[in-house]
């Protein structure tokens, strides 16, 4: 939005109107401080690097009452994203697919069919 305002030298009101976004939504800044939740989530993520934010939320709810949406938002913050999501799925084992490729399947049936 700021780029559009600066690039086209248009007013904020006009740009928001063209984009279909209310000005109050554009100007909204959250006042809630989730720093304690982020620190706790980061500590749990360092203890259990393979856990994603959902499993960490379950661990948090056993200690105190925490909203799952706040946990998701705290995990999605830039500082926590590296610890929580980067290590959640990538540190585990990879499983090979059991599907047989279409080429192998065709060649196997050609051998079995009479000429």
Architecture blueprint of SSEs:
Elements: H1 2-8, H2 12-19, H3 23-27, H4 35-47, H5 53-63, H6 68-76, H7 78-84, H8 102-112
Helix pairs in contact: 4-5
The end-to-end span amounts to 69 Å
Structurally, the number of domains stands at 2
Order of helices and strands: HHHHHHHH
Question: Which residues form runs of ≥5 with pLDDT under 50?
Answer: 86-91
The overall pLDDT average reads 78
What percent of residues are in strands? under 5%
The biggest sheet, with number of strands, parallel, antiparallel or mixed sense and barrel status, is: none
Shape: flat
By DSSP (H or I, 4+ residues per run), the number of helices equals 8
User: Fraction of residues in helices?
Assistant: 55-70%
Structural class: mainly alpha
What is the rounded Rg? 25 Å
Number of strands: 0
Q: Can you walk through the features of this model?
A:
- The protein has helices spanning 2-8, 12-19, 23-27, 35-47, 53-63, 68-76, 78-84, 102-112.
- The protein has 8 helices and no strands.
- Helix 4 crosses helix 5 (53-63).
- It is an all-alpha fold and 115 residues long.
- It has 2 domains: 1-31, no CATH class; 32-91.
- Mean pLDDT is 78; it is low at 86-91.
Notable characteristics:
115 residues, 8 helices, 62% helix, single chain
Brief write-up:
This protein has 115 residues and is mostly helical. Helix content is 62%, strand content 0%. The chain is flat, with a radius of gyration of 25 Å.
